[in-house]
Design brief:
Blueprint: E1 7-12, H1 20-37, E2 40-46, E3 60-64, H2 74-90, E4 93-96, E5 99-103, H3 111-128, E6 131-140, H4 144-149, E7 159-162, H5 165-173, E8 179-180, E9 202-206, H6 219-229, E10 232-236, H7 249-256, H8 268-274, E11 280-283, H9 286-294, E12 299-302, H10 306-314, E13 321-322, H11 329-341, H12 343-365
Parallel strand pairs: 1-2, 1-4, 2-3, 4-6, 5-6, 6-7, 7-8, 9-10, 9-11, 11-12, 12-13
Helix pairs in contact: 2-3
Length: 368
């Protein structure tokens, strides 16, 4: 006698693009789905099925997104197109997100292209009567015409979870109800809790984001040299290794540090593995701040938009935040001295915030 039919879940977010942010969200979503719902059949849409953080998980299925490098792989994209429709049609639940699925505030990214791609997937789901869940999404949309265009993607009755109040206000202005929930990456549990030994060089991680340091980029190598002179070991940690310079941390760091010798991680796996050994961090990317919190590593934040502003508020770290357009060596030195002098207090504050955020997030997830 056969048992109950497995629920078929299709997950869509920007995975397979060598972006630590999206891969970490995916990993925590899969862990939650399996722990909360038990025996489920999970398929993941990806741009590269070998590029992820799920190698320790079994019984997962991967299919390629449509479109995926359509100019170079046009014949394959015909199959990707058909396969995407079949996967959505045959799934019980389509999960979209988390992370930023559609935005118009980043250089080199087309809002209209993102919109039509998600419209295609959502319309297939609606026609197929596949349950839609937008999970932990962020909507960084600034232009009025683009905000109005979101009415084609989201409709009243959708189950929508956003991760920031700006996205909630935007959807509510379009009369689309939603709820706010903290980013699921906050549930990440490090494998090791090893911190720099008192007699060892103290590693300080630096995360930067292309396209948002115009006019202040020269401060970054100055800060790097200052930390070396003070006896620290600065390391640039890359969160994304694909795309144009605005999205690709490796290319952007190479440009910033041209002609210099510097320490940098090469892959997103390396970046994740370095975190437990850090003394402190300088975080510009959103998930750099999240990982600093879960590792309880004191951090100076550089906010480049509403989502990072809200993260700083959540972490109660306004006293350790610098705006990118105000970044100078002097402003950093003042904040760095503040962090070092209050190091133990900052560690304690992060321990409290980490415990609170995790507890609240787990409670929210129990309602799903």
């Amino acid at each position: 006698m056969s048992g109950p039919k497995k629920k078929k879940i299709l997950v869509m977010l920007a995975t397979g693009k060598s972006n630590l942010w999206d891969e970490l969200i995916l990993k925590e979503e899969i862990k939650f789905l399996r722990s909360h719902y038990g025996n489920v059949d999970i398929t993941i849409c990806t741009y590269n099925e070998k590029n992820h953080l799920l190698h320790d998980m079994q019984d997962l299925h991967f299919i390629s997104y449509f479109p995926n490098n359509i100019i170079a792989k046009f014949p394959q994209n015909i199959w990707y197109f058909i396969r995407n429709i079949i996967a959505i049609y045959s799934s019980d639940i389509l999960i979209i997100g988390g992370g930023g699925i559609i935005f118009d505030n980043e250089p080199g990214v087309s809002f209209s292209t993102l919109l039509w791609q998600w419209l295609f997937r959502v319309k297939v789901a609606r026609i197929s009567w596949t349950l839609l869940l937008f999970w932990g999404i962020s909507l960084e949309v600034t232009q009025v015409q683009n905000k109005l265009a979101l009415k084609w993607l989201f409709v009243p009755g959708d189950f929508i979870i956003v991760r920031d109040t700006r996205s909630k206000w935007l959807l509510e202005a379009l009369e689309v109800p939603c709820v706010v929930m903290d980013d699921i990456a906050f549930l990440y549990e490090p494998d090791a809790w090893v911190h720099a030994l008192p007699w060892a060089k103290k590693r300080v991680w630096i995360s930067v984001r292309g396209g948002f340091l115009e006019g202040t980029e020269e401060a970054v190598p100055q800060i790097y040299d200052y930390l070396v002179a003070e006896g620290y070991e600065p390391v640039f940690l890359v969160f994304s290794t694909e795309g144009e310079i605005e999205q690709n941390d490796s290319l952007y760091i190479k440009q910033l540090m041209a002609g210099r010798t510097y320490n940098v991680t090469k892959t997103i796996d390396q970046t994740l593995n370095v975190f437990p050994f850090l003394y402190a961090s300088i975080a510009m990317r959103f998930h750099a701040g999240v990982l600093s919190c879960v590792h309880e590593t004191p951090c100076i934040h550089m906010s480049y938009g509403p989502k990072t502003d809200e993260l700083i508020n959540l972490l109660e770290a306004e006293h350790l935040a610098i705006k990118p357009n105000e970044l100078t060596l002097e402003s950093f030195q003042n904040m760095w001295h503040n962090l070092v002098n209050r190091y133990d207090a900052e560690r304690s504050r992060l321990q409290e915030r980490n415990a609170y955020i995790k507890k609240n997030l787990k409670h929210q997830l129990e309602t799903l």
